[in-house]
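<instruction>
Derive structure tokens from the sequence
<data>
Labelled lines for chain and fold:
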Amino acid sequence: MADLFEKFTKNKGSLGQYQDQAHGYFAFPRLEGEIANRMIFQGKERVIWSLNNYLGLANHPDVRKADAEAAAEWGLAYPMGARMMSGNSVLHEKLEQQLAKFVIKEDAFLLNYGYQGMASIVDCLCSRRDVVVYDAESHACILDGLRMVPAHRYVFKHNDLEDFEKQMGRATKMIEETGGGILVITEGVFGMAGDQGRLKEICALKSKYNFRLLVDDAHGFGTMGATGAGVGEEQGCQDDIDVYFSTFAKSMASIGAFVAGDKEVINYMRYNLRSQIFAKALPMPIVVGNIKRLELLRNSPELREKLWANVNLLQSKLRENGFDIGKTDSPVTPVYMHGGVIEASQLIVDMRENYNIFCSIVVYPVIPRGHIILRLIPTAVHTEQDVIETIEAFKAVKHKLDNKLYPNEIPAMV
């Protein structure tokens, strides 16, 4: 009989197998100092491209003031208990009403966390008679939600409408047998590649197929659309999105999330969403802080304008210098390169230690062998100088990578 924990010494997981080399540098790095475009990593100042602080609200003076005053007035304990039992408040309801109005939905419901919230939404909406049709590049929170659901599932190739219709045909046949319904799940902006989901085209197919649409707009809320209301607004199809979800962790630089839609559907989730029924309500300072953040998001278009000025500058400079940034049409900026895991580790150390540029790196086993993605997140607080330094660094490391000038060994310092 084996000990339960014995397997952990033999198999540390697809990412955990690299923990001895990666911890503290590639994984679980410590960024220190004020949240900004430049922070301290391993004792040196670096240009930081790894924070989803899209609008620069993390250290906005009005936000810091609201957070501090709310913490002093309420403390972190209030309100005590889950919303349904004893943790509701006028301010929780006020934030929900403001969010619903902003994304043009009848009602909204606060969630403690984005990841947990989305997984629970999928579980809440579907039964074993239903069918879920979802994009192949859906975020892990969606996939983990699907793990909990006994519903039938069909996946369509990423943003491929032909394959989407093929899977919808299969789903339609299935519900003729089960008597259930169809839930389609996609994203407003895909967080790895930065391309928008084809929401408008999918919505147009509602006249052909009978389905409801759930959109995870974590990266689109606050950044996309004329007012920042998200990709549905950007593409002119917000009314056709049945369930709209976003987190506060991106453009609002906070904690928590929300789901919005028709009042009847949101009320159903209020009374059936297990992640909220059995969890303490969001602490009051976070709620008050999010009200202030939403106010700034609505009333300070200059923040979004500055974000997009930086996005356009960074992406145009990358393209001008021959870098492949794929099909991104959002602030998310992936840079695609070719090389192995060891070369990638050499490259990222070179970038951080010799050029003072800190960005996220994605390699095998997250993506296929031989591929490297350097992922940059421009924000409203980045500067033209940040972009100039970054482009020069990218040109230098790509030259070394392409000419196989990096040693074929894990960097000793890591």
User: Anything to note?
Assistant: The radius of gyration is 22 Å. Residues 61-299 form a domain with the Aspartate Aminotransferase; domain 2 fold (CATH 3.40.640.10).
